[in-house]
Amino acid sequence: MTSTQTLSLEDRRAVAAWAADCAERVLPLFEADAPDDDRPRDAIARARAFSRGELDAAGEIRRRFVAGRAAHGASAPAAVAAARSAAQAAGVAHMGAHALGAAAYAVRAVGLAEPDGDARAAELDWQVGRLSEPARHALLLLPPVGSDRSGPLGAGLLATGELGSIIRDLQAAIATS
Fold first, then answer.
1. What is the per-residue pLDDT across 7-24, written as a single tens digit (0 to 9) for each?
2. Is residue 2, in this structure, part of any structural domain at all?
3. Does the residue 4 lie in any domain?
4. Contacts of 23 (CB under 8 A, 6+ apart)
5. I need a labelling partner for 57 at 20 to 30 A (CA). Which of 18, 47, 48, 173 fits?
6. What is the rounded CA–CA span in Å between residue 136 and residue 46?
7. Considering only CA atoms, which of 103, 83, 106, 109 is closest in space to residue 152?
8. Residue 145: helix, strand or coil by DSSP?
9. pLDDT class for 1, splitting at 50, 70, 90?
């Protein structure tokens, strides 16, 4: 039995484009720190290609960790979060819930880059405003963060601490948009 966090192939394709948008907005934070590392940019391009139906899920599932390894080479915390956002966007081919991970890491990256001010809230507002209706509908199918033991929204990293808080805020904003 598949997890409710997986989503259908059609829904994963819809949220992959949005996840790529979220990750691409913070990509300059990574590229300023590691200009010669194109793994996050490639992950975002693959997420977009997956969303258009140009790549299959099986191939992307095998490659989903590549961008995440780029985070280990970054030194600035905002750059690390930006690389993880791209990795989560690439992971949408495997499980749709990773789209919320891409968005949460992007919000985190912005907050780390601009700790004073309302940058995080503005980023979250942009993300919700950027949602297509099919992506919004698909994200509403996901369980609340921390309520389902399996998958990225389960008891792991995305469900706890700052990322869990961001995803809770994001899910609430999507539900009321």
1. 999 999 999 999 999 999
2. no
3. no
4. 40, 43, 44, 47, 82, 85, 86, 88, 89, 102, 105, 106
5. 173
6. 21
7. 103
8. coil
9. very low
